[in-house]
């Protein structure tokens, strides 16, 4: 049989099983050997092995790559993204640690980050949520307030134009309303998810895989399973300080050119923390991430 080579886009990933879209068809894909370096959003070169199956031969050059990592391994979240939306809600309470880590990951990957505050209809928790989000809006991250349940049309009117023509990912802790938002933005998301799940043969684990949906206005949106941890062990010290957007104006002014901004004398980052220009919580996280990146084993 002569080989058929095609280009495709990875639209779902579950373990080492991938689903690609190519010339209007969906193809079940595997990698060669034990490679697991493929991400949703990747452009790939495929060799067809049957009418609906293929082997991934190569990954085209990525524009961006968003990933998280722990001490032992990295986990690719999505490739070729242009934007990241962090979904938080008035309730349940969101984690500043996860929000900040997601922002740092986006900065390090060169992806624009936005915040979505969902469930604004829960008015008693709204002032507190807004107050907590001020630290991020002060850094220039756009905040979009919506209520997927109480104001679905207004939610779509606000978010759809931001997503059009872009390649976006929605991430958030469980319970923030990410699925509700996806269902509003991608009207046939449920059907698409079921089809993808069947094609991937993931059985019951329908919500544990990352998938890409096309948008009516062009572009795509990627839904990833909720997670509780966002390890950034892969970021080097130099990348870390620049991925803290609030640190950037103060970099280059420390007494020591190789200042780590932890306890050095005449450190302009520490001075900014003392002056309230950098939130203490952000500096604490920076110290934690620096510590984590020193633990990397791989
Ligand atoms: N009051 C209110 N509740 C909402 C809103 N949006 C979603 N919810 C509710 O919040 C709960 C969580 O919503 P989901 O969309 O399942 O949230 P998720 O972030 O996808 O959570 P997981 O599926 O656990 O990852 C559900 O009970 C929704 O009905 C909203 O705008 N206002
Ligand atoms: Zn310093």
Automatic annotation (TrEMBL):
Keywords: Cytoplasm, GTP-binding, Hydrolase, Metal-binding, Nucleotide-binding, Ribosome biogenesis, RNA-binding, rRNA-binding, Zinc
Binding positions for Zn(2+) per the UniProt entry: 254, 259, 261, 267
Top enzyme class: hydrolase
UniProt subcellular location: Cytoplasm
DNA-binding in keyword set: no
Note accompanying the cofactor annotation: Binds 1 zinc ion per subunit.
ATP-binding is among the record's keywords: no
GO biological process per UniProt: ribosomal small subunit biogenesis
EC number(s) recorded for this UniProt protein: 3.6.1.-
UniProt function note: One of several proteins that assist in the late maturation steps of the functional core of the 30S ribosomal subunit. Helps release RbfA from mature subunits. May play a role in the assembly of ribosomal proteins into the subunit. Circularly permuted GTPase that catalyzes slow GTP hydrolysis, GTPase activity is stimulated by the 30S ribosomal subunit.
PANTHER family tied to this protein: SMALL RIBOSOMAL SUBUNIT BIOGENESIS GTPASE RSGA, SMALL RIBOSOMAL SUBUNIT BIOGENESIS GTPASE RSGA 1, MITOCHONDRIAL-RELATED
Subunit structure: Monomer. Associates with 30S ribosomal subunit, binds 16S rRNA.
Name assigned to this protein: Small ribosomal subunit biogenesis GTPase RsgA
Species assigned in the record: Pseudoduganella violacea
């Amino acid at each position: 049989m002569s080989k058929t080579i095609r280009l495709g886009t990875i639209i779902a990933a579950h373990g080492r099983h991938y689903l690609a879209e190519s010339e209007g068809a969906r193809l079940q894909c595997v990698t060669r050997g034990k490679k697991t370096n493929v991400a949703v959003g990747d452009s790939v070169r495929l060799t067809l092995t049957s009418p609906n199956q293929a082997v991934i031969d190569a990954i085209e050059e990525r524009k961006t790559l968003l990933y998280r990592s722990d001490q032992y391994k990295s986990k690719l979240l999505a490739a070729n993204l242009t934007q990241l939306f962090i979904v938080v809600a008035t309730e349940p309470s969101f984690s500043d640690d996860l929000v900040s880590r997601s922002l740092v990951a986006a900065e390090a990957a060169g992806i624009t980050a936005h915040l979505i505050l969902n469930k604004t209809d829960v008015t008693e928790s709204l002032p507190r949520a807004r107050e907590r989000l001020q630290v991020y809006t002060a850094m220039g991250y756009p905040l979009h307030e919506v209520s997927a349940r109480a104001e679905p049309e207004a939610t779509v009117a606000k978010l759809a134009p931001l997503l059009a023509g872009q390649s976006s990912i929605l991430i958030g802790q469980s319970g923030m309303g990410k699925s509700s938002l996806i269902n509003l933005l991608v009207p046939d998301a449920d059907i698409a998810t079921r089809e993808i799940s069947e094609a991937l043969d993931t059985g019951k684990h329908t919500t544990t895989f990352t998938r890409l949906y096309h948008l009516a206005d062009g572009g795509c949106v990627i839904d990833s399973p909720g997670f509780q941890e966002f390890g950034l062990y892969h970021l080097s010290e130099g990348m870390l300080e620049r991925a803290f957007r609030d640190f950037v104006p103060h970099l280059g002014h420390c007494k020591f050119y190789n200042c780590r901004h932890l306890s050095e004398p005449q450190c302009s980052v520490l001075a900014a923390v003392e002056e309230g220009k950098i939130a203490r919580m952000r500096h604490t996280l920076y110290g934690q991430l620096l510590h984590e990146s020193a633990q990397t084993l791989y």
